[in-house]
Each structure stands twice: as C-alpha cells, then as structure tokens.
Amino acid sequence: NIREDLKSHGMDLQPSRIGPPSPTNLGVFARKRFEKGEILFRENVFRMSSPSLNAGEIINFYDVAIEDLKKGAPRHLLSYSNIGPLTASYTGRKDVFQFKYRIVRYLQYFKNKDPTLLWNLDFDVWVLHTVQRRFDVNAFGFPQEREDGGEDVWSVISPIASLFQHSCEPNADWRNENDGIDVMLVKAAKVIQEGEEIYDSYGGLTMNLDDRRKRLMKWIGGDCECTRCVREEKEQSEEDAREADSDVEVASSGTSGFEAGFDSSSNEVDSDGDTRMGETPFVS
What is the predicted pLDDT for the residue at 271? Predict the structure, then answer.
C-alpha cells in the first residue's frame, strides 16, 4: 500500500496546495521535520525501457509482466502495484494517430513474445495505451556510463517519487544512487517542517517563466502554479503595467507640447506685425 509506504518514511498523501482542489490532485506532506540533506526515502526502481531499444517503448516492463503472468493467475496490467499509483497527464493536445506506432508495434511484440497474449484482454490495446501514457509522464532518466566513455539513459519508474508535485523552488531533490540504475535516492534540499508539502523538480529550473511553463506542460497539463511561477508572473504583470503607464505618459507629454505650439487662442503679433502660425489674424 503506497500510503503505508509513505508513512513508514515519515510522509503522508494529502490534497496538494498547488493547483485547483481535486480528489485526484494529491501531494506528499511531511509528518515530521526533515533536516537539509536527510534522506527522505530510498526505493528500488523498475526499468521502463532499455537504451538499446527505442527509448519511448516499454518493452522491458512488458517482459516482466509476462513473466509474472506465467508464475500464477493472470492479473490485469493496470492493477500492478508499480502502475496503480501513477496518473497520466492529458493536456488536450491532439496527437496524430499512427497505426504502426499505436497498434502494429504492440501486436508484433506479443506475436513474437507469446502469440496467446493477442487474445488476453489484460493486454488489450487500450490497456497498453493507458500504461504508455502513465509511464510517459512519470519516468525518470537514469544515466549510465558505457565502457566506451559514452552515456546511455534508462527510463525508470519510482512509484513513490512519482507522487511528488513539481515546484520550481523544490525542497527535495533526487538522484540515482551511486550512479547506478536500480535505486532512487531522494533527499531534503533544505529544512522541511512538519506539515509542509514536499516538492521535487521536473526540470527547467534555469529557464525563464514562459519557457519553463511550456516545458512543464507535458507533466502538469497546464501552467505551473508553484510559488516561483506565481511570483514571477505577478512581477512580469507589474513590469508590463509600469511600461504601459510610461508609454502613456510619453505620448501625453508629446501631445501637450504639440498642442501648446499651435494654440489658436493666442493673439500675439510678431515684430513684423504678422500673426504667428496657427493664430487668427485681426480683421478690422
């Protein structure tokens, strides 16, 4: 049980303080004080895909699931403990349907792996799509150095880490322990008080507000509403308002000077006896 796992680490799952109130908008909260650098939890991850395969595929997980099915009674793929707590983010962005990518690749995989799975509704296409969508927004990238000095990135899932809400001012950070690909380590980035919500970062911390929000749209499904983004949005709005007021003042000043130079109410006459431009001459 994910809630029991959190409680055993001094944390709890409650309605998040970021975003609109919703039964599904949950966040992780501290049930005790954590000191800076203190380990919040250490968790074994499971590999979603291998860098030797297409990074967007989740063949590694399917392999594991199939082996589990062979060991006992079939279980629905979405009931797996590693998938159950995960949620998908649907941003409203329309994707182009690709028959080869959405249908054929799944069927080909199961045909090669175990043809009987083509008739197993636990692995129906809609189930696979749901799993894919959940993995897409919950995967972490674990780098692994190769013997040739290059680097591969494994896509992995940490069910507990996936529960943390994002903040552009995170109070927790994560890394792969000992540069490996099997263990997620999450520590307090600063002192976390009891009752405080715990946030990590989904990325983009060095970007400006607009670019950061665009990058985070995939995971959040809308504009990031963390304290930093809200503060920077307010500052940006105030700066825009000041610039607009300044433009109005400049325009007003220029208009006043123009009107003053063409004041038709003046009847002054120059030394030659001619009225000035814009003035009405006196007619006897």
Answer: 42
